[in-house]
Amino acid sequence: MTFNDFHFRSDVLGLQVTAWVLLPDANVMAQQGGKPLPTLYLLHGLSDDHTMWMRNTRIEQYANQYRMAVVMPAVARSFYTDMASGAGKYFTFVSEELPRVMETYFPLSKNREDRFAAGLSMGGYGAMKLGLRLPHRYGAIASLSGAVEMERDYHRPRGGGENEFWHELNGIFGSEEQLLAGDNNLTLVADKLAAKDAPRIYVACGDKDFLFDYNQHFVKTFGEKFSIHYEVTPGAAHTWDYWDSQIQKVLQWLEVPKAERGW
Asked: Is residue 157 over pLDDT 60?
């Protein structure tokens, strides 16, 4: 594949931003016959940045099997949210500006059925939020060890680092009441979304992951409504080994065209 280290000014954020972009090689692009590429927006976790998927998994090798593009943006510790404190409109950035810029500079499809989002942990939350809030734009979404019930983080025992995290959540989401009542609450958004309008949904989590109960509860609540593809991996925790194995399954599940190879 071709690797692009893409930098541009975000008018939404008011600063320079970065995204790593993977595109098929020229011979694979030719197999598209001039058609724009299906695109996966692959989102990072809380303590990571746009580089971590390529540094910790073989995403480039896995994506090389398909006629598709992969876009990996950097969003700091924003939870892909228009933040309550400050000017960081990161949901607007990742949902509106980023696709517009990517589809301007690269041959990416603008069709719903060709646009996907996936992520791990905080990125799983971001991917689910994109698909559940904007189901007319995303054909499929995948959450790996995702923070799918952020409202429950307000009720974790506080002290030390947890107390600092609680203050960080207030800066991102506002108060607990604001999170519960607004569009950053995935449970509320999913409850309002009609099943016929939803994208395809993939959820995976290991049973040793600290977010396992969140994922279990979310899937139990909405699994029948949305026919969620749910994978529980015995013994798996919040680790890159797990996400490396799962992203291969996600790419297969997306069912994008395979790349034909001449060797």
From this structure: no
259 close to 69: Cβ distance less than 8 angstroms? no
For every residue of 104-160, which 3-state class applies, written as one string?
HHCCECCCHHHEEEEEECHHHHHHHHHHHHCCCCCCEEEEECCCCCHHHHHHCCCCC
Q: Percent of the chain at pLDDT above 90?
A: 86
The domains found in the chain, sorted by start residue, are 2-254 (3.40.50.1820)
User: Tell me: the pLDDT tens digits for 225-260?
Assistant: 998 999 999 999 999 999 999 999 999 999 999 998
Model confidence, pTM: 0.95
C-alpha 245: how far from chain center: 16
Q: List, in order, residues 6 or more apart from 5 with CB less than 8 Å away.
A: 18, 20
Side chain identity, residue 155: H
Block residue for tokens 């939350």: 125
What is the three-class DSSP state of 19?
A: strand
Classify residue 24 by its DSSP letter. -
Tokens of 179: 């999170």
Distance between alpha carbon 192 and the CA centroid of its chain, in Å?
21
